[in-house]
Amino acid sequence: MVHWDVLTVRHTSPRRLDVGLTLGPLGHGPGDPTFHPAADGSVWRTSLLRAGPVTQRFVPAGPHEVVVHLWGDGAREAAAALPVLLGEDDDAADFVPPPQAAVAHRRAVGMRMVRSDRVLEALVPAVLEQRVQTVTAHRAWRWLVTRYGTPAPGPAPEGLRGGLRVVPDARAWTRVPVWDWHRAGVDPGRARTAVRCALVAPRLEEAAAMAPAEARARLEKVQGVGVWTSAEVAQRAFGDADAVSVGDFHLPAAVGWALTGERTDDDGMLRLLAPYAPHRHRVVRLLSLSGRARAPRRGPKLPIADYRAF
């Protein structure tokens, strides 16, 4: 039996804290080997920090408290970053939700905007999610992290097949061969974008310390990273409560339907969300939680494209 040293930290917040809702955006689908919400209410997460890999287990201990167990060389660095990760800097004191999201806002009072400060960790899965069905992107993420990531330090969640993995570092992403991108179901365009991001990872990681607009501009300098992708990264890595995923296939129709009962496009969505700046992404999350953001389909579902067959 392997013995792992564990660092245990009790984090107490002055406000209500819902760990599951706050950390949830860091997961990328069922079976994500870097993120696991357990049946007992705890949340497991891995990350690759400057000091090394870390496994974190978040155990809610009350409306304002969470006990966090940390394993690995990155444990102390991750412990110091817990307040930022858990959204203690997320200021929503002036936020008034739209009436359509008021009930969700009351029920999700402990939801914060998560801030990982790990840019490449958020950027690669966002690139994989470009222009494809979510299920396809999640499958590719699982396959690539399982094959090229490293075993997570510490114990594994009970019953989790294969255990947890830590994301590959930038160098490992650049060394994924063409045929393995193909085996993961990633087309050449997205594969090239992911590699370009990894090649300039140190410059991209600097964006975490920049103002939101400047940070997103830095990301969008990489060929293949547009406004949708930079918004997805900003929501997770920068804790940006105002980053709207413009260019999303489903989002404008969903937001339009939730707020007006009619579909809309990107421009219409931005007009509807404009009164809620700088909390537009917060509104989108609440509308999603409310169950209102589901515009009825106008036709059959698109078939899932499997690039492994091309």
TrEMBL record:
One of its GO terms (molecular function) is DNA-7-methylguanine glycosylase activity. Transmembrane segments: none annotated. One of its GO terms (biological process) is DNA alkylation repair. The keyword DNA damage applies. Keywords: DNA damage, DNA repair. SUPFAM superfamilies: DNA-glycosylase (SSF48150). One of its GO terms (cellular component) is protein-DNA complex. It comes from the Bacteria. PANTHER family: DNA GLYCOSYLASE, DNA-3-METHYLADENINE GLYCOSYLASE. This is 3-methyladenine DNA glycosylase/8-oxoguanine DNA glycosylase.
